Amino acid sequence: MSNAVLESIKAAGVIGAGGAGFPTHVKLAGSAEVLIVNAAECEPLIRVDQQLLVSRTDDFLTGLTVALELTGARKAYIAIKAKHHEAIEHIRAATATEEKVEVFEMGDFYPAGDEQILVYDVLARVVPRGGIPLAVACVVSNVETLINVACATRDIPVTTSFVTIGGAVPSPATYELPLGISYREALALAGADDTQGKRVLDGGPMMGTLIDDLDSPITKTTKAILLLPADKRLIVEKAMSDGQILKQSRTACEQCQKCTDLCPRDLLGHDVKPHLIMRIANYGLSDFSGMKRALGCSECGACALYACPCNLSPRRVNMLVKQQLLAAGVKVESEGVFEASPMFAYRKIPVKRLIARLGLVDYDRPAPLTTNTWTPQRVTLLLKQHLGAPATAVVAVGDIVKRGDPVGRIADDRLGAHVHASIDGKVTAVSDTAVTIARER
Ligand code: SF4
Ligand code: SF4
User: Fold this and answer.
1) Is the pLDDT reported for residue 199 higher than 90?
2) What dihedral do alpha carbons 374, 380, 385, 390 form, nearest 10°?
């Protein structure tokens, strides 16, 4: 099966729908002992995976079977938080005769869906710092990605993304949105026309990124669009300039080490120690080996938005240090023995408490999956929605395309993913970065 199926997954432009957008045909080409389905839905307020497991069960199970066969894994764990009773009951019934498949019930903690934390939680194996789960014979894939794998085997490319639109919107809901529509159009679907005094995030409250241009397009990795008041601490932390972040750190870090005590990657044994990075950065010391610890940071934000009593952001300081080290060609050191701390199990961050600390209790509402269909007049498809090189446009202005036609292709020898038209229409603009399609009236 393998080569032809991997080719169909590549042809369909499937990438990891829940994370950085790693091309799935590359991930599933590796052999593994165990496949973990990441249904943890790590970030507060996102409601995609738990609903897809129920509404798209057949496609999910087809994708899971394909992934098991491709990787040769002898076992699959569907890792889902125990609180999602309906989804667990449903998927247990649907997999009752599948010997290889088991549901793994997780606690409700953050960041349960961080791949490395997930692998340790399910298998008690520590992925080396800077490594991937394959280093411990494991492959991790999320629910939507496996649904897209199933569609790929029927030659259906990725043209939509399931997205929770939530926060301060009148009608939170989860939509299957055509790729390339604008954040503004998406928010309007949930009744949010007025964004005055608020900011928009692509992603969850912890790791999501601020969207400055609401007319920019959503991509294959967009899982949530959250509208939140601009004065929320989580928004302020993301909006501050690098200079402000460093100035605050220098004046207020009291070296209490709470950031390190609760750092999930440090607890995993990756020796991240954010309080030490703060000390080195704040005092202008050139402790190069100490600085390299920042490369093990996942940018989860637990230190900045939960742990630090002074509202500082070790996360942002780590990001700055990382940028400089990577620009200087310094690589993360994966050699050595990595052992999780005995405190790992006791220092998990409860999501309920996290939501309260983030000031999001009022926004922790259901966002039901809607089957409403909606056809945009225009889409802008970015040629880089994935890890690796950008795709190259294969259409020209004036071309007529149908939904599913390729508009951007990745060269055979490059890491990346093809891009497809998400609506029928005429190509109205092509650049090195995007293809725009307008519906013909
Ligand atoms: S928790 Fe805050 S104050 Fe304490 S060491 Fe970390 S950054 Fe400094
Ligand atoms: S963001 Fe903070 S808590 Fe998260 S891994 Fe980095 S240092 Fe640790």
Assistant:
1) yes
2) 150
How far apart are alpha carbons 426 and 1 in whole angstroms?
A: 37
Give the integer Cα–Cα distance in Å for 245 and 239: 10
Rounded Cα distance, 363 and 201, in Å = 14
Q: Which of 257, 299, 308 to mutate to test the pocket of ligand 2 (most atoms within 8 A of CB)?
A: 299
Q: How far apart are CA 132 and CA 300, in angstroms?
A: 17
Q: Verify whether ligand 2 is closer than 6 Å to residue 314 (CB atom).
A: yes
DSSP summary character for residue 67: H
Q: What is residue 200's predicted lDDT score, i.e. its pLDDT?
A: 98
Q: What is the pLDDT of residues 103-127, one digit of tens each?
A: 999 999 999 999 999 999 999 999 9
Q: Tell me how many degrees the CA angle 19-21-26 measures, rounded to the nearest 5.
A: 120
Handedness of CA 369, 373, 375, 381 (dihedral sign): positive
CA distance 163 to 46: 8
Ligand 1 closest atom vs CA 257: 5
Distance of CA 131 to the CA centre of its chain: 17
pLDDT > 60? residue 413: yes
Residue 287 has pLDDT above 70, yes or no: no
Alpha helices in 283-388 (DSSP H): 288-291, 302, 314-327, 351-357
Instruction: Name residues contacting ligand 1 (CB within 6 A).
Output: 253-259, 275, 278, 307-308, 310, 312, 314
Cα 26 vs. chain centroid, distance in angstroms?
A: 18
DSSP string of 387-402, one letter each residue: SSSPPEE---TT-EE-
Calpha distance 52→35 (Å, rounded): 19
Q: Which domains does the chain have, with CATH numbers?
A: 2-152 (3.40.50.11540), 159-232+359-374 (3.10.20.600), 241-349 (no CATH), 375-441 (2.40.50)
Cα–chain center distance at 251: 33
How sure is the predictor about 280, in pLDDT bands with cuts at 50, 70 and 90?
Answer: confident
Q: Looking at the predicted structure, is the pLDDT value of residue 218 above 90? A: yes
Strand 101-106 and strand 34-39: pairing? unpaired
